[in-house]
Amino acid sequence: MASAPxxxxxxxxxxxxxVDGFFGLFIDNLxxxxxxxxxxxxxxxxxxxxxxxxxxxxxxxxxxxxxxxYAWQARRLMRQTGRTDVTALPYGINTVSLLAFIFLIMxxxxxxxxxxxxxxxxGLLACLLNGLMEIVCAFFGDWVRRHTPxxxxxxxxxxxxxxxxxxxxxxxxxxxxxxALLPMLLILFTYASRARLPFGxxxxxxxxxxxxxxxxxxRALGQPFFEPSTEAYRLGFHPPIxxxxxxxxxxxxATGWQYLSVIFPMGLFNVVGSLQxxxxxxxxxxxxxxxxxxxxxxxxSVVAAFLGSAFPTTIYIGHPGxxxxxxxxxxxxxxxxxxxxxxxxxxxxxxxxxxxxxxALGILLWIGLIITAQAFQEVPKxxxxxxxxxxxxxxASWALVLIETTLRVTGSSLLAxxxxxxxxxxxxxxxxxxxxxxxSSMVLAALLVQVIDRRFIQAALWAGxxxxxxxxGLIHAYDLTATGVQNKFGLAAAPDFAVIYALGACxxxxxxxxMRKTTPGPPHAx
Length: 526
Description:
Blueprint: H1 16-43, H2 48-81, E1 91-93, H3 95-113, H4 116-137, H5 141-147, H6 150-175, H7 177-193, H8 203-220, H9 244-247, H10 254-257, H11 260-283, H12 290-306, E2 313-315, H13 319-325, H14 330-345, H15 348-354, H16 361-377, H17 384-409, H18 414-421, H19 427-434, H20 437-452, H21 456-472, E3 478-481, E4 484-487, H22 495-515
Antiparallel strand pairs: 1-2, 3-4
């Protein structure tokens, strides 16, 4: 009888909710491809032939293989549990790593040397090392999940969701309300109410269709609310081509390895992010095995680097959002196939000429709201304080992005402007809190969970971890240079933070021994 669930049918490969899920995940992936196409030539000097001929085809293979695996993984869980409501893990190019590699590795190398090929090769090395880190960490990821409170794993994810996913795109929506606001409202109305539309039409599809219709109607009437991309396109086949020579060109050179201060935390960021996303999926009802999930993450990034892509792929944030839409396994297959075809045939410029992205950004707002709500809903009520604390580092990181963007637009730099902020904005506090924000979010939230539950020994251990991370520079440490904020690694990288966290650990140990005389239970929220 125990083996009966494994023989249960997994249901249909495609359901109606997969269409909604596909639109959301497709737009999310498409945004990353747009950033690559727009930023690489400008910031890194990469010729468009390299972007469309090597980087995107290499990414296509990684995206396709990963999406197919996670769809198969969801189907396998359906058969094992006898359920038909399992949702595949979303998958694609990591936004934070993408921006970090462009602005902190490839861009600076190009600015220093004027050599775009060298900048691309450094990106390949960074992508390779990120993949290898995930492969190694796959073998002890389960241990981390078992010993880290759920509030710690979900709160930093919620911080990213409400800032980097939701807020930036909300600004874009309200900057173009005539074509973007109505689709966003339609998405919120249909998804939040779970109302069924006439003819069973998916809400996301209807919202995007309305946005596209409005944009082209207004354009036909001579209103300048939508300007299609003017980039020329030539449909053709761009097969992925192995580039082992370029991939290994910098293995024995200091050029690529000098950016290990960016590569290492980004690899760690991807690993931690994957664990958080797995925890988020489990909180939504779908528990996937950690080791194979991380292994596929790592292997696909290694393959992407070998085929010319400088950007790692990873499990995406947003599983509960896709699940709430009714997506199952089919949306992942559709996303992998369509995104890969766009990359392989050079069709992205054509898509950008037809579909205004503003029409689909409401889907990303929905995902951000779902993830943020989950962080509070799926933890014990008394741990909500810890979730709130865990949001703060991501808010600081996002604030730093806004500050740096503002300064760059005005022709200034953070190095020049930092002394002028004085007491109006404690910019050094913003920077320190933003450095390693995913790790500091986890550690601070986990520490507070243990304090709330009066497990002071465990809390002291988390404070000790914070001290060690500060001491080695994985959190809070930085150097402010002419090119921006740089990570700072080494012994005593952030000694002031390390000392304070260590003193906090000592205080917690004192509380433990002081409380041994009495044994009150954990406090309960009123």
